[in-house]
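Structure in, sequence out. Go:
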């Protein structure tokens, strides 16, 4: 997961207003970092560290040794790997065997912020904002506990938030482009607020000028490296653990644990304990799964890579009950009673069924005309169940037509075809263009899939059983072939 020195993982912790490769590149603004004592070849080889690694990585490993995090018993070491940098096994490792443990005193989390000089200033901030500000400040300090860790962090990754305007043009028409631009605007607004409320008025604590680029860097570090599945932690960065790369071969996320144990020669503390989800031979790289549920677009935004697996391709359908709808209040009440709102988002993945609730919500939005009787309070407790099946031919025809038109409109917004994307994939693309091509091709395939699903539904309209026919059958007034048996029907409708 690195372009040249990779790292690890975490799940998204932030959702702005809408809604592999964590590369290490030694472009950091901080000067090279050195230990007070020089690193000797003997001490490096005792931990089987590759002396061909960049000095900053060697220094980082030596710091971990000094802190008691690694020793000659540590089953992994940093090494150059196809992704850039990763951790490889120095001996055979069994599945679920602990490969590293990092004491809580080295974690970067809201607790670390609270205990710092800026803790009181950050007490009212969202946790991620306080940690971002802490990262920026600590990176500029020569006496930071984590200075050797900052020496190996990248200045940027291939995450789309770092792409140039020219590179972003390759995402034309994609939802990823809109999300990226929204995130960048959100970051800008949050930074300006922090600058006005905290940074500029506390120059003694922030003597080094802080820029929007610094803030974007901290956001990218958090987005790509924060673990959020620990038992008592919602947002935590673990030095060394973030060296481990992602692999699609790993199909479980149960690899990180928080335990109570020895954290050094004379102390006990909470430890971040990470187990290998795969059995390894000496020399094999250690991998984990970053997030089983993220789409390729989310992987690109968070980490700066995508998987070749087409099943990671997704498209989000956004549905909304219009305020101009004469039945707006009734529909909103029904939606909210069933876990939805005025706006609903449905993530549709390639080669997967439509998500639960999508057709039901669509039918609710489309209810009108002679079907409006279903919105009466008499049906309030049962209408959602009725909407799970076709309501009427007009209603079903409307949702098919609207969805198909939306798909065609979205497909027209891309500047390439799937065929052109496939040809591009056969060439030697740089990492960012490869991401753009993969994401836009994937979105188009999902849109075609959605269109095909609703096209098939249109062809079945005459064969479907609608609400009134089902109701008549329940009352014994309609035969199996749909014929009316007889009786006074007005009292029923």
């Amino acid at each position: 997961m690195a372009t040249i020195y990779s790292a690890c993982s975490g799940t998204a912790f932030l959702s702005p207003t809408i809604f592999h490769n964590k590369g290490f590149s030694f472009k950091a603004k901080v000067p090279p970092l050195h230990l007070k004592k020089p690193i000797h070849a003997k001490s490096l080889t005792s931990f089987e560290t590759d002396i061909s690694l960049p000095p900053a990585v060697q220094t980082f490993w030596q710091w971990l040794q000094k802190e008691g995090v690694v020793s000659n018993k540590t089953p992994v070491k940093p090494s150059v790997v196809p992704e850039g940098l990763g951790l490889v096994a120095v001996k055979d490792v069994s599945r679920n065997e602990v490969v590293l443990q990092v004491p809580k005193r080295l974690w970067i989390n809201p607790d670390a912020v609270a205990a710092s000089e800026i803790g009181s200033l950050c007490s009212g901030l969202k946790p991620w904002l306080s940690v971002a500000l802490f990262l920026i400040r600590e990176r500029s300090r020569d006496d930071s506990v984590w200075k050797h860790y900052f020496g190996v962090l990248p200045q940027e990754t291939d995450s789309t938030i770092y792409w140039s305007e020219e590179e972003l043009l390759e995402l034309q028409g994609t939802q990823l482009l809109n999300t990226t631009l929204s995130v960048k605007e959100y970051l800008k607004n949050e930074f300006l607020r922090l600058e006005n409320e905290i940074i500029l008025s506390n120059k003694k604590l922030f003597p080094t000028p802080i820029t929007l680029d610094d803030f974007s860097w901290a956001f990218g570090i958090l987005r790509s490296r924060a673990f959020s599945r620990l038992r008592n932690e919602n947002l935590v960065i673990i030095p060394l653990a973030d060296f481990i790369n992602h692999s699609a071969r790993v199909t479980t996320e149960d690899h990180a644990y928080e335990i109570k144990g020895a954290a050094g020669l004379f102390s006990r503390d909470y430890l971040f304990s990470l187990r290998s989800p795969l059995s390894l031979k000496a020399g094999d790289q250690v991998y984990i799964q970053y997030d089983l549920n993220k789409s390729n677009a989310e992987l690109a935004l968070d980490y700066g890579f995508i998987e070749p697996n087409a099943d990671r391709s997704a498209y989000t359908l956004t549905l909304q009950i219009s305020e101009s709808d004469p039945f707006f209040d009734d529909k909103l009440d029904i939606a909210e009673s069933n876990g939805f709102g005025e706006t609903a988002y449905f993530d549709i993945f390639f080669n997967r069924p439509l998500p639960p609730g999508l057709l039901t919500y669509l039918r609710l939005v489309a209810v009108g005309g002679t079907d409006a009787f279903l919105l009466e309070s008499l049906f309030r407790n049962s209408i959602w169940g009725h909407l799970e099946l076709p309501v009427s031919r007009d209603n079903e025809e409307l949702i098919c037509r609207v969805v198909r038109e939306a798909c065609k409109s979205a497909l027209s917004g891309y500047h390439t075809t799937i065929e052109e994307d496939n040809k591009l994939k056969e060439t030697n693309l740089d990492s960012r263009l490869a991401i753009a091509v993969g994401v836009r091709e994937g979105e188009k395939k999902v849109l075609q899939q959605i269109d095909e699903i609703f096209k098939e539904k249109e062809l079945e309209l005459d064969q479907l059983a609608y609400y009134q026919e089902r109701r008549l059958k329940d009352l014994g007034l309609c035969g199996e072939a749909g014929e009316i048996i007889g009786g006074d029907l007005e009292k029923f409708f």
